[in-house]
Design brief:
The complex is a heterodimer. Helices cover 39% and strands 15% of the residues of chain A. Chain A is built from 26 helices and 18 strands. Chain A is globular and about 70 Å long. Chain A starts with a helix and ends in a 27-residue tail after the last strand. In chain B, strand 2 and strand 3 form a beta hairpin. Classes of the chains: A alpha/beta, B alpha+beta. At the A-B interface, helix 15 of A face helix 1, helix 2 and helix 5 of B.
Chain lengths: 604, 221
């Protein structure tokens, strides 16, 4: 064996699996208690301690991850820290949990993984956070610097792989700098438009001696964020709003991330402007308010899509005009002058030309607008029209008792059984759309879902992260699909171990339902690989994991079972057998005209 | 089994008369035309650190921007490098190139250069030299320097604007060109104008934010 190869000791790598369940997470363990304060706050002695110190300085409470060879020094340093490490069953779950933690708390969630497969398993979760601009930091182990580029055991070019899906990433090359690299990653993740950042940590760098304390979290000088929009443009936009007769506000995820919900609510109610949200914007405006038209886009409400199509002034705040929102560009809000508020200049006129580009922090700019608008738009007729559309295209469904349970009914029952502040997480598919449509969102940071990337399997690990970020009195409900749940359900082991009070409702139609719906609509009903008739019994599976299992087969069970599952103190899974033929409507086919949404399959 | 929701069918709904073009611009008399691609030079000052070029080039490949050339080299400040890009895109695309570049954390500043900016490219051209006198005459015409010669070949170095180099290559081709290596365009703004230099936060943000830079229509040089 060459000298180089000998320095990776094979036994060390083999030990990884056994180390996974080490009691790192148990803050009450005697070992942790025995650690003196002097030791946890004492001077940094190596790179890994500097990394952990940087996390502590940033106020990190939880980190989600999986142990492994190259990240071991960091875990060793975490062992003495007050940070609670939550060992996940798979790194993808760690990334989603960290992502959800960031969405609910507003502070970057932290996930850790070892080099190679650990890092690549994070990739889906990082890409997800990137698409949704969620603050997150990923710390990945890397093979020792001398092996980097040699295709060493468990080596991947992690910074190379994650460059397109991170806001910024760093290969930490210097033990004296590594702590500051992490501080900077933390600061960058939350500053301006949030996003995931990654620091790749070669094992020799984290093992090396250093007494350098990390610098305070600050963003690099080259990263500049404009907080206030140009006053002249604000005045021009205000004038446009005053003179509009068919105004609409479109609130995106940026409203929630920028803590601008309150300012937007005040602005909308003061000037009586109808409000639409995007999917990531759910919760930015109370959906039970008269001005709310709920969500627009592919599966948005008919009234939101009518309003967005016919408005003359569109005030888009913190939205990137994703194609699922806009449908075909040609027919998107074709009569509207667009006032676009965004903190990221690159979003301005990227998809839809902005007539009034207002770059800045959402809350600040909305306050600027509020100060600049002197008179409310004369839009009484328009508001009446919007109300008319609300009744014309009401979101109703039939639920005949002799037919299988309709999914909408289940979502409404879950909403009914929980408080306004309950947090909803979902996977991706039909169940996600029913959750959007039939849950009445009223508060920001209560909707946790995979929007831009559309990651099936997001729901359960997100519920774990959300649970730890949420207040104790907030219920956490994961509305999942059978296909989605199957992708990451190993996370149940984590929920059971940590006794996390979450309720998973699997809307089980034994299909990968959204695909089945599209196959029926666009592929002549040929159900290629979408028939999931081989699903396990999820209630029994839950019990095998040590969670509480429930099953719903008909309407009589719904309310009672949901109540029991919510009341259960710990993870519970309800296997809800819904109507396998239920579909999501309204629907705007890809690239279609929002105003031409289909209400039935025949209209597609 | 009936599926779907109640409400007026698509054909019973009013539709607005307006439309947007593919670039998301409302089609009205002022902006009816779709922007045609134009060629322009963008200069970026970046941190001189590993991975920056990969980040920049990755950005372009990922977003399918049409890059004609990309050159990079050190500057007077050893911590900074300059990247010069020639892009051919419609105006909205050029705006996106600039904004996306500015988003990258190691990028310090980005400028689109005026049409009168100094733009130079270097080409090495290796030609058959069976007739040295004629070859040298052509070389003289384009101020090309001989950098290597052998009984069969002559290699010339030509610097200048892209058009000059294209013209030289065209003329040299009569002798038979064996190999060409070209650098792509590098450029600096004229006089006291900044190319892409560190700028104050407010200035750069305001510029990045809202106002498209002036629209230049001129081609190279």
């Amino acid at each position: 064996m060459s000298e180089r190869a000998a320095s990776i000791t094979p036994t060390e790598e083999q030990d990884d699996e056994q180390l996974e369940d080490a009691e790192i997470t148990d803050s009450a363990s005697p070992e942790t208690d025995d650690v003196s304060d002097a030791e946890t706050t004492g001077p940094v002695t190596n790179g890994a301690e500097s990394v952990v110190r940087a996390l502590e300085n940033a106020g990190v409470e939880y980190a989600f991850g999986v142990q492994g060879g190259a990240i071991m020094p960091v875990y060793d340093a975490l062992y003495d820290s007050d940070i609670t490490h939550v060992t996940m069953a798979h790194e993808q779950g760690a990334a989603h949990a960290a992502d959800a933690f960031g969405i609910v708390s507003g502070d970057p969630g932290v996930c850790l993984a070892t080099s190679g497969p650990g890092a690549t398993n994070l990739v889906t979760g990082i890409a997800d956070a990137d698409m949704d601009s969620d603050p997150m930091i990923a710390l990945t182990g890397q093979v020792p610097t001398e092996f980097v580029g040699n295709d060493a055991f468990q080596e991947t070019d992690t910074t190379g792989v994650t460059t397109p899906i991170t806001k910024d990433n760093t290969f930490a090359a210097d033990p004296d700098r590594v702590g500051s690299d992490v501080s900077e990653a933390f600061a960058l993740a939350r500053e301006g438009r949030p996003g995931p950042t990654l620091v790749d940590l070669p094992k020799d760098v984290t093992k090396s001696d250093t007494d350098r304390e990390p610098d305070d979290p600050r963003v690099p000088d080259t990263y500049e964020v404009q907080e206030r929009a140009d006053e002249e443009l604000v005045d021009a936009a205000a004038e446009r709003i005053e003179n509009s007769s068919r105004p609409v506000m479109l609130l995106g995820g940026g409203v929630i991330k920028g803590e601008a919900s309150e300012a937007c609510r005040e602005f909308a109610t003061e000037h009586e402007i109808p409000v639409i949200t995007t999917m990531p914007g759910l919760g930015a405006f109370p959906e039970d308010h008269e001005l709310s038209l709920e969500m627009a886009g592919m599966h948005g409400t008919g009234y939101a899509n009518m309003a967005i199509t016919h408005c003359d002034t569109l005030i888009g705040i913190g939205t990137r005009f994703d194609d699922r929102l806009t449908g075909g560009i040609e027919t998107f809000a074709p009569d509207a002058e667009l006032i676009h508020v965004d903190i990221d200049p690159a979003e301005i006129s990227k998809n839809i030309h902005a007539d009034y580009p207002l770059v800045g922090d959402a809350e600040t700019v909305v306050e600027q607008l509020a100060a600049a608008v002197d008179a409310s738009p004369q839009a009484k007729k328009w508001r009446a029209q919007c109300q008319q559309w609300k009744s014309d295209y009401s979101m109703a469904y039939d639920a005949p008792e002799d037919e299988p349970v309709q999914p909408e009914f289940v979502v409404e029952a879950l909403d009914e059984a929980t408080s306004d502040r309950a947090i909803v997480t979902t996977g991706v598919g039909q169940h996600q759309m029913w959750a959007c449509q039939y849950w009445t969102f009223t508060e920001p940071r209560t909707w946790v879902s995979s929007h831009g990337l559309g990651t099936m399997g997001y729901g359960l690990p997100a519920a774990i992260g959300a649970r730890l970020a949420a207040d104790d009195d907030q219920e956490v409900v994961c509305v999942d699909g059978d296909g989605s749940f199957l992708m990451t359900l190993q996370g149940l082991s984590v929920a059971v171990r940590e006794n996390l009070d979450i309720t998973v409702a699997v809307l089980n139609n034994e299909y990968i339902g959204m695909v089945r719906q599209w196959q029926d609509a666009f592929f002549e009903g040929r159900h290629a690989a979408s028939d999931y008739g081989w699903m396990p019994e999820f209630d029994k599976l839950a019990e095998a994991f040590g969670a509480q299992g429930f099953r719903i087969d008909d309407y009589d069970d719904v309310a009672e079972t949901i109540e029991e599952a919510i009341a259960y103190d710990g993870p519970s899974v309800i296997d809800v057998h819904i109507d396998p033929q239920a579909n999501v409507y309204p629907m705007v086919p890809s690239g279609g005209d929002n105003g031409q949404f289909a209400l039935t399959e025949e209209q597609l | 089994m009936k599926r779907g929701l109640e409400g007026p069918a698509p054909e019973e709904r009013p539709t607005p008369a307006g439309r947007r073009n593919k670039q998301g611009i409302r089609i009205d008399p002022e902006v009816e035309a779709i922007h045609e691609p134009r060629r322009t030079v963008i200069s970026a000052l970046v941190e001189h650190e590993p991975g920056v070029l990969a980040e920049v080039s990755g950005l372009f490949s990922r977003r399918q921007f049409n890059i004609e050339s990309l050159t990079v080299g050190p500057t007077a400040d050893e911590d900074r490098a300059r990247i010069t890009l020639v892009v051919e895109e419609p105006d909205p695309g050029i705006e996106q190139v600039k904004k996306q570049l500015r988003k990258l954390v190691p990028v310090i500043s980005v400028r689109e250069l005026a049409p009168d900016a100094m733009r130079r490219e270097l080409a090495l051209v290796k030609v058959d030299a069976e007739n040295p006198a004629q070859v040298n005459a052509v070389a003289d015409m384009y101020d090309a320097n001989t950098v290597d010669s052998s009984p069969e070949t002559a290699t010339f170095e030509i610097t200048g604007a892209r058009q000059k180099i294209e013209a030289a290559i065209e003329t040299f081709s009569q002798f038979g060109i064996r190999e060409i290596s070209r650098t792509g365009t590098t450029a600096l703004a004229r006089g006291t104008d900044d190319t892409a230099a560190p700028v104050s936060a407010t200035e750069s943000a305001a510029e990045a934010a809202n106002q498209p830079d002036q629209t230049y229509t001129a081609d190279d040089d």
